[in-house]
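anyone seen this seq b4? input:
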Amino acid sequence: MEKHHKFSIWYVLIGVWIVLLLQHYLVTMLAIRTIPYSEFLKLLKAGKVTEVAIGANQIQGRLAADVSPTGRAQLFRTVRVDPEIADLLAKYNVTFKGEVESTFLRDLFSWVVPIFLFIGVWYFFMKRMTGQQAGFMTLGKSKARVYMEDDLQVSFKDVAGVDEAKQELIEVVEFLKEPAKFTELGGRMPKGILLVGPPGTGKTLLARAVAGESHVPFFSMSGSDFVEMFVGLGAARVRDLFDQAKKRAPCIIFIDELDALGKARGMGGVGGHDEREQTLNQLLVEMDGFDPMVGVILMAATNRPEILDPALLRPGRFDRHILVDRPDKKGREEILKVHLKNVKASRNVDVEALANMTSGMVGADLANLVNEAALLAVRRKKKSIGMKEFEEAVERVIAGLEKKNRLINEEERKIVAYHEVGHALVALSLPGTDPVRKISIIPRGIAALGYTMQVPTEDRFLMKKTELLNKIASLLGGRAAEELMFGDISTGAHNDLARATDIARSMVKEYGMSDKVGQVYFAREQRAQFLNTAMEGGGEYSEATAELIDSEVRDIINTQYDRALNILKEKKETLVKGAELLLEKEKIEGEELKALMKTEVRSQ
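predicted toks r here
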């Protein structure tokens, strides 16, 4: 590779300094002869000095021609010496000369150093101004990070739990590898591919895997990188991004967090000429203008598709939508296996059990779970990560960090213990509820003084009315246990009440599970669903209907509270024994509480 040397001001300064030194040497050392003062006196007495110029410290003059080796009159100089000392030294025939104190360092610090300091400051400011001008000239350049083929070490093997999405993207890989295979029949690849799904499901990882499998350059940029305070810069960056991509085709352009750029126009309450909308308009124009046969694939990811501009989603732009949803149980097993390859896990680790315990978690959550388990094993100085560490990591991710040092008085510990056992007993007594795995009164997270961990045995996508009612009763079991045992209630049930009320209100307003209200949809705002951009509400309703809805929600909550209270009254002995055991051990397994329930049944 040819090397280019940059010009530096230091080259000029060094050259000037050398010229000055040479001039000083030639003029001073060669043209003027320096002689001792004693020799000057001898030459003076011999009549060989033709003229002199007397200074304060030295004498300069001209010698006769017959004294000079060249046969010409020569200039000389000598340093003056005190006349009395000179006479005394001459009397005893001693050669002597004068010495002038060196002022080189004083001269250097008095004028050379300030000059260099001034030049250095000037050079610094000139360089800074040049850099700012260059930065200003590159404002319209794309900020995309470009990963070449060798930089991408991600493949479809590194992506698990999203088999349907991978299958959709295999066509993109085949097109980038063999475009002629598609053009023979007149087909073309979609201009844009939109990856939609909750945060942490692996949308960005999937896009990188496509580029890694295709062995093509990968342009990665966030939607927020386009939008700037200067009007027109975002549009310029869009143009520059597509120009760069066309030069390196075949390649993939990936825009993460597309909703930051592609929000529906007019939603921001600002006129149609603001910077973000100009950038979006330029993106729409570029997507219309580039030919997919060139080999440039535009991919984007978002978790808020409902706010995207409809013009982005029409055919011819982002015309293929791929849902990257939360993984099911099998998907979670595959994701855990991928992450377990990078850690030293024990053979007793049950991946299927971990998948059951992590219902609803996405890939990012599972990666964090494995990392937390590894840190726990390191803290305990273990050689490998066991199932115990993984179970504790699940609790830590779900409920928060244990706070064993938080001091709780004995009365509050009793209330928390009966509260948590109340949840567990009601859940174990009702059909269709998630199995109780663990009960704890060790404070966790910000406000949780205890928790009851229920682990589903399988993924559920539909809930029956009876199951929802049972869930509400389980949530209210803690408050019912407090009232039964202490004749009073505490503030510890605020989260349970919030969740129970949400379920009851959804049953009445959204699911049509109320006989009095009927099978009518009353939600004011439709919940944003992936791949659904409609934002219409469910219609308005009268104040009388609103009162009826509130009444029905209250009736559901009260009915299930009474139900939970009756269950605990029947199992009061188990409630007391379970709470005493929990106070003693601070943590008990769901199986221990089941054993207490069976003992009570046998005794009856």
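The chain has four domains: 9-91, 145-323, 329-398, 410-603. Residues 148 and 217 are 5 Å apart (CA to CA). kinda curious what u guys think
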